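To: structure subgroup
Subject: Chain for Friday's discussion

All,

I'm putting the inputs and outputs inline so they're searchable in the archive.
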Amino acid sequence: MFKARSFKHCKACGSAVTYSIPPDDNRERATCGACGAIHYENPLNVVGTLPVWQDQVLLCRRNIEPRHGFWTLPAGFMELGETTAAGALRETDEEAGARIEMQALFTLLNVVRVGQVHFFYRARLLDTDFAPGPETIEARLFREEDVPWDELAFPTVRETLRRFFDDRRRGQFGFHMADID
């Protein structure tokens, strides 16, 4: 199980925090002995798309760490003030410069060991003109047989692509959930 302990100081008063189980709670929290504030550490949401053009998917080669030079779907951390779909659309524009039509949520992946939840939406590419941003070396379309499986950046990308191509062969698309180690 993921055990976060990223708080060292209270966000309210700056005093050192300790980890203990507050009254009426069931797990350790960062607790300030000076002002009594309790700080919660919750999973981060990663949002992105699975952009499709005919029988191909759009992948981006990362220009940042982690996994610089590896391929991924356009995705990133959700920002405050946006929905998961709005964040996925923003990330697709920022990373691939791709114009898309958002479709249904395709997969939700729990990545407990790193404290993340990944949401990938299906997206229909409106054209094949891409303008990758600074976080992307290149953006390219791949057919299943051409996907660089050994050069994918993250297990969640591999799982999402595997499920997409499996669904495509069956001729039906559904919603998928999985826990990723």
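Points worth raising on Friday:
Residues 155-170 form the longest helix (16 residues).
The domain at 1-42 is CATH 2.20.70.10 (Ubiquitin Ligase Nedd4; Chain: W;).

D.
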